[in-house]
Design goal:
The structure holds 2 protein chains of 2 kinds. In chain A, helix 12 runs antiparallel to helix 13 and helix 15 runs parallel beside helix 16. Chain A is built from 20 helices and 30 strands. Helix content of chain A is 27%, strand content 25%. Chain A has a 7-stranded mixed beta sheet, sandwiched between helices. In chain A, strands 10-9-11-19-18-17-12 form a 7-stranded mixed beta sheet, sandwiched between helices. Helix content of chain B is 33%, strand content 16%. Chain B is built from 5 helices and 5 strands, in the order ββαβββαααα. In chain B, helix 2 packs across helix 5. The chains are: A alpha+beta, B alpha+beta. Chains A and B meet through helix 1 and helix 18 of A and helix 2, helix 3, helix 4 and helix 5 of B.
């Protein structure tokens, strides 16, 4: 067994943790008062727009901006020539995705080539947005159109058009001389795969295709920047990490981090897609050229063409089991599009896909492949939904062939504490069995599903969750309230889930804490809001910060009573002398005595916890398939998830429901549609079809709490794993409904009909 | 550039005059010229509902209305939903039910739901889902939004 820190305190009578207060930023958000990135308007501000490539792959021979510059109201124009081309070949970790530093710069504005339809080529700052848009039409770009490649398996072939003429494959850890669109190939191996398949009585093998899908946040990317005459750059934006933006800007603009201040405004969704700095560097350079603050907002078309998405993929899964229902072998091959630059989430997909199971023999091969599509970004459990879809459909078919209930089959093979994962590590305390048992005991699972063309499907999913660095500081007010400053962008209630952990320590109410998200000059370094790490890690920082406050206040009580600090205990928000219980003072009263005992008290904490506990979710769906149209209706959906400890239950449920909704959209409707020229044909929210409230039923949540030993309150990240199971659960439900197994996403009406026709002959 | 046009409207019960270019949408004028930034921009082509406002009592996507068309019209935005006495029941129920995560779609949902409840005080779940199908939320899966509207309807019917 691997050693692990037992940080879990084992508290059972929480006061604040597990309650449902109204979030601190709630009133601002229901009244329209909250200030999001695009709501900021500064005096003397200019507006800028980006000219984008109409081609999937082309060499930029020349750019003529003279006519645009002559348009009244145009203040400045920038192209790739205005950015310092970085030569840094090493990879940088942006928190939930990894990029090559030189690619970071090249992705901002084209240098020599454009690599996808929508690639940024030039940008215009003007006195208003309409003039900036008019000016774009006056810029002439001379392109030499190059052959492009869109399909991930075509891109792997020798002779395929090369997205990067100098990209060489890194294979099994070795840098090769092979020039290819395959940027890397890796493999994990456990046991003896050959023996494993020899031991198997039943083997199922399938191939799966998925298309690129977008995070679909409702607020478009935006940024406002001011490059002051003293060289200090201030950036206002709605990004998942202010420090991440600062780091990227420092690299792209070649400016020290101390000269950059990033002020996080409210953010309208991210899901991983708002980690990269797309507009911030352009706005900064335009501000430097003009001396004015410059504001930029993407259109929805730009968002879909040139931000996000996550990888389309080809995945092959072969699994074997014995007649007794024991999984004995798994062989998986994952081929992921990374878009225009290396760095797809194939690694995470490969690591996570088999974790629910104890499989003694497993080989997983992963390929990261560049194609002429947008550079992929993290999307909720990056890379894992594609892989889980494939693995879980195969698991479902094995159970069927063994005449086993799909939950019993999973219970028979479930990973537990101490079993070895296919990618190497031993499992710590995990909750997959508990989730399976909860499904089995549920009313939904035991309910009868009757009618024509209806079916029920189930699938498991796993996401490893992140740790990372977080900081918090807090000042105690004389009335016993606290102003808390923490570094995590709040995308969905984390100010409150973080403050609740501080309140729990101090025995005060969460309403007595005023949490705010600090800018990069006012709070310690904090990683991005991603990897389901915020309530876990920044919550821990708040917990530790509260301990610091408690110790300092205890010392003040000791001064006041002229006794030793060791003689003081703190319980139920009261400081008390152990030797003389008559000496007793509440936290709030003590806060009023800080001035007379030495001055204000501030707490501070930074953390870098390593004990992030992985999370499992199981999704159960009932569907009805319309045999005339192929449309799939979700009749009922339930999610069972191990959350460790639900600090802020209504928002834990919200994460579970939101993840399921995105997973259902991925399963049924969402996909990038490129034509033969590599032009994205569905770059609107009408044609990129995300679920509306008419497409979904209520989503029933079952919170299961198997505490994470690596957190004081047992927290596991909850945000990401719920997106993983739905596509496989829906595919299995469709199979139960109409007898066809569909291995490609999305399972749109046309695809469902085609599958039914090819299985059952012509249309009825 | 075309000359600016003088427009007089009523916004949240108060007469408001503004000058706008004929190409400016109501959304742009609300946000950039009148500083009413509670109305959000999500797609600017009528597909997401984040910019929902009431025009003459009807829900519209303000990105699809030209500002010059609003001459003499009555406009209600999210800023007009709460009163000095406190939050509207819908706002209160959105908070109680945790019916928002990032909050960017929330003003649009509240404006649209308010229009629904003013016309139909006791809508069914199906009716709520149909009425709000023009408003996209990517965070919540809609469950808590629908429940908040149902609960607000129940409270408002009793009042």
């Amino acid at each position: 067994m691997a050693t692990q820190t037992e940080d879990f305190l084992g508290i059972t009578d929480y006061k604040v943790v597990g309650s449902s207060p109204v979030r601190h930023d709630g009133v601002d958000k229901v009244t329209g008062r909250a200030i999001y990135g695009t709501d900021l308007n500064l005096p003397d501000m200019l507006f800028a727009k980006v000219l984008r490539s109409p081609h999937a792959h082309a060499r930029v021979k020349s750019i003529d901006t003279s006519k645009a510059e002559a348009l009244p109201g145009v203040k400045a124009i920038v192209t790739g020539a205005d950015l310092v081309e970085s030569a840094e070949d090493e990879m940088a970790d942006l928190g939930e995705e990894i990029v090559r530093i030189k690619d970071l710069t090249a992705a901002v504005l084209a240098h020599e080539k454009v690599l996808y339809h929508g690639y940024p080529v030039a940008a215009v700052a003007a006195s208003n947005i309409h003039i900036a848009e008019e000016a774009l039409d006056l810029i002439t770009v001379d392109y030499e159109v190059l052959p492009h490649v869109l399909d991930v398996r075509e891109a792997m072939k020798d002779g395929a058009p090369l997205v990067h003429e100098d990209q060489k494959t890194k294979s099994l850890g070795e840098q090769t001389d092979k020039v290819s669109n395959i940027s890397s190939h890796f493999r994990t191996e456990l046991g003896d795969i050959k023996q494993g398949f020899e031991d198997a009585d039943i083997i199922v093998e399938r191939e799966f295709n998925t298309e690129m899908v977008h995070q679909g946040y409702i607020e478009p990317q935006n940024a406002t920047a001011h490059w002051n005459a003293d060289g200090v750059i201030t950036v206002w934006c709605s990004n998942q990490g202010a420090f991440g933006v600062r780091d990227q800007l420092a690299k792209i603009l070649a400016v020290p981090v101390s000269k950059i201040k990033v002020i996080p405004l409210e953010i309208g969704g991210g899901f991983g897609g708002k980690i990269k700095a797309y507009l911030e560097p352009i706005a900064a350079v335009l501000s430097k050229k003009t001396g004015h603050p410059v504001k930029m907002i993407m259109t929805r078309t730009e968002v879909l063409q040139a931000t996000g998405p996550t990888s389309g993929s080809w995945v092959r899964v072969k699994m074997g089991a014995t007649h007794e229902g024991k999984l004995v072998a798994a062989e998986c091959e994952l081929v992921y599009e990374s878009g225009a630059f290396a760095g797809s989430p194939v690694g995470a997909g490969a690591r996570n896909m088999l974790v629910p199971y104890d499989i003694p023999n497993a080989v997983v091969d992963g390929y990261d492949v560049t194609v002429n599509k947008p550079s992929t970004s993290a999307y909720r459990a990056p890379g894992t939904t594609n892989a889980v879809f494939a693995a879980e459909v195969v698991v479902d078919e094995l159970a069927e062939k063994l005449n086993m209930d799909p939950i019993d089959f999973r219970l028979r093979n479930s990973a537990k504490e101490g079993t070895r994962r296919a990618d190497g590590p031993l499992n710590k305390r995990i909750g997959h069995v508990e989730c399976l048992e909860a499904v089995k005991a549920s009313e939904h699972y035991n309910s009868k599903l009757e009618g024509k063309n209806v079916g029920r499907g189930v699938a498991s999913g796993f996401w490893g969750n992140g740790g990372g660095v977080s900081s918090a500081s807090a000042s105690v007010n004389a009335d016993g309230t606290i102003n808390l400053v923490e570094g995590s962008t709040d995308i969905g209630g984390t100010r409150t889930s973080i403050a609740m952990q501080m309140a729990e320590v101090l025995g005060i109410s969460v309403e007595d804490i005023r949490p705010q998200v600090g800018d990069t000059d006012s709070v310690g370094y904090t990683g991005v809001t991603g990897g389901s790490r915020t309530t876990f890690a920044t919550g821990w920082a708040a917990y530790k910060c509260a301990q610091d406050i408690k110790e300092q206040m205890s010392a003040r009580a000791a001064i006041m009573w002229e006794i030793s600090e060791d003689d003081i205990e703190f319980d139920e928000a009261v400081f008390q002398s152990k030797s003389d219980p008559s000496k007793s003072i509440t936290f709030k009263e003590m806060a009023g005595k800080l001035d007379s005992t030495g001055g204000p008290v501030m707490g501070r904490a930074t953390v870098k916890p390593s004990g992030a506990g992985g999370a499992f979710a199981i999704v159960l769906v009932d569907v009805e398939v319309d045999e005339e149209t192929g449309k799939v209706e979700i009749l009922r959906a339930s999610i069972f998830q191990d959350v460790g400890k639900a600090i802020y239950p209504p928002y834990v449920e919200g994460q579970m429901q939101g993840g399921v909704a995105q997973g259902i959209g991925w399963a049924l409707n969402e996909e990038y549609v490129y034509d033969e020229n590599g032009v994205l044909r569905n770059s609107s929210l009408l044609d990129y079809r995300m679920p509306t409230c008419l497409d979904l039923p209520m989503i029933e949540t079952h919170i299961i709490e198997v505490p994470n030993p690596g957190h004081p309150y047992g927290v596991r990240g909850v945000g990401e794993v719920p997106i993983c199971p739905p596509p496989a659960a829906v595919a299995s439900a469709i199979y139960r409904a109409v007898g066809v197994r569909i291995d490609d996403l999305p399972m749109s009406p046309g695809r469902v009909l085609e599958s039914m026709w090819s299985e059952n002959g012509a249309a009825k | 550039m075309a000359k600016k046009v003088h427009v007089t409207t009523t916004i949240n019960g108060e007469e408001r005059e503004f000058l706008c270019e004929p190409r400016q949408t109501l959304l742009e004028v609300l946000r950039d010229d009148l500083d009413l930034t509670g109305t959000k921009e999500g797609c600017s082509n009528g597909n997401c509902g984040a910019c929902s406002v009431l025009l003459g009592g009807k829900v519209v996507d303000s990105c699809l209305v030209m500002a010059v068309e609003t001459e003499g019209q009555d406009i209600e935005t999210i800023e007009g939903v709460a009163s000095p006495e406190g939050l509207h029941p819908l706002q209160q129920k959105f908070l109680e039910h945790a019916a928002l995560q990032c909050g960017i779609c929330t003003p649009g949902f509240i404006v649209a739901a308010k229009a629904l409840l003013e016309k139909e005080p006791n809508p069914s779940e199906e009716r709520i889902r149909l009425y709000l199908a023009g408003n996209l939320c990517r965070c919540t899966g809609y469950d808590k939004i629908v429940r908040a509207v149902q609960d607000a309807a129940a409270v408002m019917s009793k009042a």
